Every structure is written in structure tokens, then in C-alpha cells.
Amino acid sequence: MQDHLHEDPAQLLLKYAGKTEFDLKFAIQQIHARQKAKNKIPSWAVNPNLLFPPSISMEQASSEDTALFKAELVKGKSMIDLTGGLGIDTYYLAQNFEKAIYCERQEDLAKLSEHNFKQLSDNKFTVIHGDSLDFLSKSQENFDLIYADPARRGGQNQKLYKLADCEPDVVQHWGLLTSKAKTILIKASPMLDIKQALIEIPEIQQVWVISVRNEVKEVLLKWQQESKVDDRKIIAVDLHPDGKREFSFTFEAEEEAESVFGAAGSYLIEPTSSILKAGAFKLFGQQFGLKKLHPNSHIFTCDALPAKQIPGRIFKILQEVQNPKKELKQLVPSGKINIITRNYILSPDDFKKKYKLKDGGTQFLIGTKSGEKYALYLAELAR
């Protein structure tokens, strides 16, 4: 496996089929999994003693970035992960606990994780193969943390987004969970309807929307025994190599806020994807003194940048493109440019197809609605 880590798994299977005394398919599955894990779980991918499951479990697993972030939110003596999976979240969350219980219904996955935990750590982990809610209901122990990442695939492999549709159903079993924990942390789909989830579980006190390099990866719902729901906050976080960017607010404050509208100034600002997912469409502009181009565009503008750091991408406008058909050939001679459209007549893919453009370069074309008209701007990143 180590000798062929950087080779094509399909070609390896053809080359060595019937020529090995070991399980060739398993070895090649491990190579393929490590190639996929290289960016998602880098510290695990380089550890030769660890084993990885088939690709679907790899896809559902948390990234190392998000697991490390979640570990910052909780601590205590004991924790239980009701939906262990590959064990990424279990392992990193457990760094702030004295002992951890990992539960998994799939026997092969449970055995694999038990092997990995022994390679990674001391005897902190207990692996339970079976129904986690059944185990929890029969346990005499109360936990400082119950963590769950409910399965979001239906019987026909369709994607599920509502909490009550996922397995285990944390909505139906909420009473059991709160009777057994001081803190509950639920990982949900990045497509989760946050307001609907808060109707399903109104006791949730904190919601975290997590993006990695400006791509929303997951939504976290947090409940604590001693906290009040009146203090509920929505926190949008973008994890980026340059640093962590946060924006927190309440839905009540967002409803009361008012946007100031205006024509494009010297700069265009696009909030991080986690802020847009969280729904801070008015407070964002109000907090940073920015004007909005249109109620539904969620693109902001200003003539001079504020001193404090804005959690988003800031673009310096080079010029407005009045006639794309005529101007783009001169403005983009290479045919390569980055396209952003929000509340615009064309999607980025349709725009590229219509004007025969490809992604690339350092400049951007930003299409949006400004006032009552559609506008297109040539821009570059300001910082």
C-alpha cells in the first residue's frame, strides 16, 4: 500500500489481479481511501497503521478541520458519540474528555474504528456495536456530552435534510437525550432549514454554521443543561488557512435591522457562505456600514473600507461592463476569468457557456441586480 500510494487504483487492480497472496481489493481500497483522505483528514492519511472504510463512509465523515473546531466547543469527563462512523469526530472531541464511548450499528465499521483508536490513543475509547439509543436508554451513566451526526440517506439512497427524517431521530428521542446529558451537540446537513430545525427542537440555544474555505460543510445545533433558550445565538464561522472568521447574531436582531441601499461604489463585498446560509442579510451591512445593491442580491458596497476586518470577500471594482458581447473579448483576451452571479439573469455556468469563458486568472466578473437593473462588474480581490 505504501509503495503504491500515488498510483491509479484502477490500474493497480488490473496489473496485479490474480498475482497476490493477500487481499488485493482491500489493499487497493485502502490506497483509494488514503488518496481521498489526503486533504480531508491529512493527519490520518499519512498514518500507515490506520485503516479506512469504503468510499461512502469516507464521504459522510467529517473533515479534520471541522472536527478540530467542534472540539473547541465542548469539554468534560465523559462523552458518547451515538453515530460513530469513521470516528473522526469521536477522536477529536474526545481530546477534551477523560473517556469516550463510540457507538456504531455497522459491525465492520465498528471493528475498523476500534483498531484505529488503539493505534491513535490509550484506553480512552470504548467501542459499542449496536443500536446507540438502546444502549443509551439502558445505561446508568449520565454524560457531559452526547454527540450525534444522524444519517442523512433514505432507503432509496436519497438525501434527507429534516432532522426528524434522519437516523437516529433526535427529535422523537429528544427527551431521552436531555435526560442523559449536560450538553448535546448535533451535526446536521449544510442544507438544513435552520428555522424549521428550531421549531422541531425549540430548546436549542446555539446554532453554528461552519464553512471551510468559504464552502458550507455543516450546521451544528447545541443544547446545554444550564443555558437559556432566550440567549440563542446564530454563529457563522469560516475556517480558512488565513484564520477563523466569525459573525454572530440573533434572528430577532436580524428581523429588526434595516438595510441601506445604494449604487455600487469602489468596492463590492460578498459575505462568507456561512453568513449567507445563516441568514444575516441585513445585520451584516449594518454592522460594517455597508450599502446593499438590491434586497435579494446579498452583495454589499462601499467607497472606503472600514478599519475592522470584514468576514467575506472584498473586490475592487475596475469597471462596469455595459455590453458583455462587445467588451469581454477585449477585457478577457485569455478567455479565463472567475464568475460570480447573485440574483442575476445567468448562472456562472450559463454565463461561461454563453460568452465562451473558462475559470481562471486573478480577475472576476460579478453579475448581480443593482437597483432595478442587472449589472456586471469587472473586479479584482482587494484583500
From TrEMBL:
Molecular-function annotations in GO: methyltransferase activity; RNA binding
InterPro entries assigned: KsgA/Erm, PG_1098_Fer, SAM-dependent_MTases_sf, Thump-like
CDD domains for this protein: AdoMet_MTases
SUPFAM superfamilies: S-adenosyl-L-methionine-dependent methyltransferases
Keywords: Methyltransferase, RNA-binding, S-adenosyl-L-methionine, Transferase
Ranges for domain PG-1098 ferredoxin-like: 267-305
Record-linked Gene3D superfamilies: Methyltransferase PG1098, N-terminal domain, Vaccinia Virus protein VP39
One GO term (biological process): methylation
Name under which the protein is recorded: Ribosomal RNA adenine dimethylase
Organism: Belliella buryatensis
